[in-house]
Amino acid sequence: MCAFFTDCECVVIETWVGSGDPPTDIWKFASEQLLYRTYSMFKKVEKFRYFIVGNCIDGYAGIERDLSAEIDTEEVGRAIWKYEVMDAEACRKQVTKRQYSN
Amino acid sequence: MDKQGVPRPRKRPSLALPPTQSQVQGSFPLLSCPPEILLLIAKRVANLHSSGYNITAKPRGRTDLFNFSHSNKTLREACVATGLLTWLTPPKGIRWPEPTLFDMLFGSRQFVISCLEVDIGNVDVWELCAHIMEKFPNLDGLVLSGCAAKNTKRFCESKLGAQFTKFTGTSITLKQAVFSGFQSQILFLLGRSNVTSFSLLGTEFNLRGPKEWTLKTLFPKLARFVFNGLAKRQNVYVEYHPDFVYQPLFSHFFLPAPNLVYFELLTGSRARLLRGRIDDRENIEDETNTLANYFTSRTRFGILRYLQEHVKTLQVFVDNDSLDGPFLNHTMLLPHPHAKADSFPRFEKMKLLVFRCEDPGSLTAFGGTTDDCTVGSRNRLSGSGGHSVWQHVIDINLQRTNLGSYRSCALFSRTVNAL
């Protein structure tokens, strides 16, 4: 779906209220998985920047892609990107900024 | 007056200063309870399974407030004042009183109604609904349910039909409604020029046969589209038209495409895996081509293809099909089997892509059917180390697995392009 909407800059996985925190390894997992296939198809990833998990009641957590860093493509079959962990308020701002609330 | 009609002595208005908090607590014994007790009481009230009001729908996500409003008149007034009970739904199976009684109930106060639900299949409520629409000309939303069946012409000539033409609101919802080509002229009665939000919830369109309108966009200013597909595929399966079942809907009502900025999709049916699939690579094609997967893919991918081909303004896409799988292979999204990824039409204004997930733990879990539940794919056997959830979130799989679906997409694309 990210490849289908390839120009999207923010991906949110909205969890059920009370379903708990995202797994601790999800950011590393996302950084390894999220852009790999998109990159392998398009040989570039332009706008994608934010990956956020949570909901408006329990709060959000997420990461922001370091746009200045090169995507590491040296390892065969992997395109790993550098990121910074965002705090809950920054995540909420990014979600509401895009006029999404549920 | 008490219940026996005996007058009670009137309380004198107090001339003293406003009471202190301790005085308030003293006069209301309940407030002197420990906060935990009050919270328990509040929780009990919030979770009441009340029968509800006869003509108001419980707003989604506000059931607790609704129950509070039901427990006490003052609370009810407060809830009404904050706009909680602004959605009117004349009930089914009840002979509704004359509109004059409605005026007695609602006419004496400033009552705000933002949305009216009309069962177009229930002739008994037409007059009342027409009266409400006349009474509240600034009604912002209309919800249509049911089926006009053989009363379509009667509806168009009724007072309610006349009120539909005066509608100036911004939101239309079709909820568990049924429309044929002929019955769809009811939609064109509506004043549609201000409509920016359209929800299609479990509604069936059977648009074969002659149309009663020239093809045009139903809502020219539409920006927000919520689609909840039908769960019962057998109801909409048409043997001689096995292509995308919602194709007539989109080609007859939504082309040229309005400038949509928001689309929410719930397919309505789910993909299915074959039993015993893990150990058997021979049945990958069979799995892809099951009826359940065929129905699901033609709805889901048909809509995505519509967006891809015709909507350049999309900013937010919400995928309401939960991330607990199974998932369809996204192969069908390719314009044709040998298409290159960078030749796809792009959504250059996209800002946000939303997925729904019941169990966040499943996002990184391996084992069971968590990571290997993509129709027509076997991650573990292929040793790819892939994860179905992430394949769904990320991928357009370039493997070619289902020619039938390519044909369907091509057919749909040709039809809509021809229009």
How would you classify the helix and strand content of chain B by structural class? Answer: alpha/beta
Shape of chain B: globular
Helix fraction of chain B? 25-40%
- Span of the ends, CA to CA of chain A: 21 Å
Instruction: Give the rounded overall mean pLDDT of chain B.
Output: 74
Low-confidence stretches of chain B: 9-17, 51-57, 233-243, 397-419
**Biggest sheet of chain A, in brief?**
4 strands, mixed
First and last CA, distance of chain B: 71 Å
Largest sheet of chain B: 10 strands, parallel
- Share of β-strand residues of chain B: 5-15%
The arrangement of helices and strands of chain B along the chain is HHHHEHEHEHHEHEEEHEHHEEHHH
Largest interface: chains, residues each: A-B, 38 and 41 residues
The total of beta strands of chain A comes to: 4
Portion in strands of chain A: 15-25%
| Helical stretch tally of chain B | 15
Query: Shape of chain A from CA axes?
Result: globular
Output the radius of gyration of chain A: 14 Å
Mean pLDDT of chain A: 81
Count, helices of chain A: 3
Structure class of chain A: alpha+beta
Please give a quick description of this structure.
Chain A is α+β, with helices and mostly antiparallel strands.
What order do the helices and strands come in, and which of them pair?
The complex is a heterodimer of chains A (102) and B (419).
Chain A: E1 10-15, H1 26-33, H2 36-42, E2 50-55, E3 59-65, E4 83-86, H3 88-97
Chain B: H1 21-27, H2 35-46, H3 63-71, H4 73-81, E1 87-88, H5 99-106, E2 115-119, H6 126-135, E3 141-146, H7 152-156, H8 159-165, E4 171-180, H9 185-189, E5 197-201, E6 204-206, E7 224-228, H10 247-253, E8 262-266, H11 284-288, H12 291-310, E9 316-319, E10 352-357, H13 379-382, H14 388-394, H15 403-418
Parallel strand pairs in B: 1-2, 2-3, 3-4, 4-5, 4-6, 5-7, 7-8, 8-9, 9-10
Helix pairs in contact in B: 3-4, 6-8, 12-15
Features:
heterodimer, A: 102 residues, alpha+beta, 4-stranded mixed beta sheet, 23% strand, B: 419 residues, alpha/beta, 10-stranded parallel beta sheet, 15 helices
